[in-house]
Amino acid sequence: MDPLTIGVALSAASKAFGALKRGIETGREIEDMTKQLGSWFGAMSDINRVEQRSKKPPLFKKITNSQSVEQEAIDSVVAKQKAMEMRRQVRELILWRFGMETWNELLAMERKIREERKKAVYAQKERIDAFFNAVFVSLALSACTALVGGLAYVIYIMIK
Questions:
Q1: Which residue, 7, 9, 14, 148, is most buried by CB atoms nearer than 10 A?
Q2: CA 119, CA 102: separation in Å to the nearest integer?
Q3: Domain total for the chain?
């Protein structure tokens, strides 16, 4: 897991959460807070996505990641707990101010945002990861081929 990514997603979720909370507490209508809701749902989706990717990182991340497994686990658990607490509070605020119907509409909106992000943002990241994996594997195979060829040449010269 890229700690910068989880930190950025958590920071964005916290910022949007603060704006939502202030808006609801001051009596703003839900229609006036769609930007904050979209930002919050998007950041929550990012947190979930980073957690999923940390369970199955790309090959080049596995090899080049300098962060310990324990630190990744701690970061993931802390982010997930903070996200769950924010979600619980947003749910309570919306149910208290607007009712269950509005909460259900927001859940539908969240699913829509998650699907859109999956198609656009996450698919692009997966293509980039696949490209880097291919480059990494190609370079590793080239290096191994050069090493074997060099050794074969040295052995050939020594035998001759």
A1: 9
A2: 26
A3: 1
pLDDT (tens digit per residue) in 115-136: 887 787 777 878 888 888 888 8
Amino acid at 1: M
Tell me, yes or no, whether 81 lies in a domain: yes
Closest by CA position to 21, among listed 86, 107, 104, 105: 86
Is residue 109 a contact partner of residue 41, using CB atoms and an 8 Å limit?
Answer: yes
Q: Is residue 140 part of a domain?
A: no
Provide the residue type at 40 as one letter: W
Q: Is residue 157 part of a domain?
A: no
Residue showing tokens 């979209």: 38
pTM: 0.60
10 Å CB burial of residue 36 (0-12, 13-18, 19+) is buried
